[in-house]
Amino acid sequence: MRFWIILFLFGIGFSCRKSMEAEMGLSKPLDAPKDSVAISWLALGDSYTIGQGVNAQDRFPFQALELLKGKLVQSRRLTYLAKTGWTSADLIRSMGEQNLEGHNFISLLIGVNDQYQGVDTATYRENFTKILNRSIELAGGDQRRVWVLSIPDYSLTPVGRQLDTGKISQEIDGFNAINKRIALQRKCIYVDITELGRASKNNPAWVCQDGLHPSALAYSKWAELIYANFLSF
User: Fold this and answer.
1) 3 state SS of 232
2) What's the pLDDT tens digit per position in 141-178?
């Protein structure tokens, strides 16, 4: 029954533009049975989405799709619109410059650089709302195809521990309260990866070699959480 619900939710994927492939560095279509469902995933965000410090196959969207292949879900396309250092304003600007039509699933993780650069919460709220509304439009108006991930708490990392950890953690919670409230108001799916990371704060294997960004292992746990949410429908 769950598999058929997944079929209903995501339908048949569309083809992405070749120009987007050249510019954004897309992964190749994944192999899966011929009768599987095609998902065209647009992954929006910053360094956490593009997987700063890990290989392309270790990014959380790629790992999540690998897990979903076991449920006869095939990715026709996986498009990244994400860059290290991007704020919500940067993402808005880039979304306005790209042709992003043709996706039936969208993930959104943005805000850590807003917090780090001191962007006020009112501005973040406005920007995040714009991004989420546009994401819903791109998903054909189906909010269930738009998944928002919470911002990780980087104060737990070796680099973060050299900063004001209390301030970082408190502000991350504030930004997450904003994106969670807006996501749930729009009836999108919300995935809390922040508490997942905090529960493993003493595990050095969760941080990549730069001492700041998540490792392939950490991203695998994000992917498992996304996979579990798929199966909960």
Assistant:
1) coil
2) 999 999 999 999 999 999 999 999 999 999 999 999 99
d(CA 164, CA 136) in angstroms, rounded, equals 36
SS3 115: helix
Cβ(3)–Cβ(96) below 8 Å: no
β-sheet bridge partners, residue 106: 42, 146
Dist CA 16 CA 1 (whole Å): 30
pTM above 0.90, yes or no: no
- Residue 39's nearest CA partner among 134, 128, 147, 111 is 147
Beta strands in the chain (DSSP E): 37-45, 73-82, 105-109, 146-149, 189-191
Q: How many CB atoms lie within 10 A of CB 123?
A: 13
